[in-house]
Write a structure and sequence with these properties.
Keywords: Cell outer membrane, Lipoprotein, Membrane, Palmitate, Protein transport, Signal, Transmembrane, Transmembrane helix, Transport. There is one protein chain. This protein is of the alpha+beta class and 228 residues long. The protein has two domains: 61 residues, Alpha-Beta Plaits, CATH 3.30.70.1530; 100 residues, ANL, C-terminal domain (GMP Synthetase, Chain A, domain 3). The chain is 46% helix and 20% strand. The protein is built from seven helices and six strands; from the N terminus they run αβαββαααββαβα. The strands form two sheets. Strands 1-3-2 form a three-stranded antiparallel β-sheet, with helices on one face. A hairpin with a 2-residue loop joins strand 2 and strand 3. The radius of gyration is 28 Å and the shape is elongated.
């Protein structure tokens, strides 16, 4: 009977396939978004939890497809830096230039978060340049460079004016014409799910037949012992 149990265990391992870690130390919400996207594209995924967070695992044969699908959809999203991270308590007072650079970075992060909440936006990146006043030269007004990758299921290009207005209104002293905006439509290409190799199919069939034979043989031996 021990041999039967071992064979059953080997069969389960063969049928389950080889799994590999996709991402680890994920937050629950981010892991659920990634998992939903993979499953909706017919990529099987397992979710494991530990003290460090959530780990997602996929079949080795679909690893490349999973990485590409998540990348094209901007997942996992990069963690945002908050004001408490740039200005921790007890830190020495920095120069006005350093303080200004930190505040611009926080403003860029807040704007990226706002743009990412727009329907269809996959990735949003914002870089803000404050007004510069060099001695003896003309003042250079504030400007912002905005990059957005969006889903092909929405027509985000039709809302370009609204996006410019949103960015300019969110950054003091920034005029809409000083917002450089690039909208890129995402293109997702996935290969077909790999077909099971013929040799693997035959090995599974042979293993199943062997398992059935062992069960039948064990049942026959048990019947003989009871008859004796």
């Amino acid at each position: 009977m021990r041999s039967v149990r071992l064979l059953c265990l080997l069969m389960l391992m063969m049928l389950a396939g080889c799994k590999t870690d996709l991402y680890s130390r994920l937050e629950e919400g981010e892991a659920n978004r990634m998992m939903a996207l993979l499953l909706s594209n017919r990529i099987a995924v397992d979710k494991l939890r530990d003290k460090d967070g959530v780990t997602l695992r996929v079949d080795e044969a679909r690893f490349v497809d999973a990485i590409e699908l998540l990348r094209q959809n901007g997942l996992p999203r990069k963690p945002l830096v908050g004001i408490e991270d740039l200005f921790p308590s007890g830190q020495l007072v920095s120069s006005p230039e350093q303080e200004g650079a930190k505040l611009r970075y926080v403003k860029s992060q807040e704007m990226e978060k706002m743009l990412a909440n727009i329907e269809g936006v996959i990735v949003a990146e914002v870089s803000v340049a404050q007004q510069s006043t060099a001695e003896g030269a003309a003042d250079v007004p504030a400007s912002a460079a905005v990059y957005i990758k969006y889903s092909p299921t929405v027509n985000l290009a039709a809302h370009e004016a609204e996006i410019r207005a949103l960015v300019s209104d969110g950054i003091p002293g920034l005029a809409p014409q000083r917002v450089s905006l690039v909208l890129q439509r995402a293109l997702v290409r996935l290969s077909d799910p790999p077909r099971e190799p013929p040799m693997l199919r035959w090995s599974v069939v042979v293993a199943l037949l062997t398992l059935v034979g062992l069960f039948v043989g064990s049942a026959w031996l048990l019947w003989r012992r009871r008859r004796a």
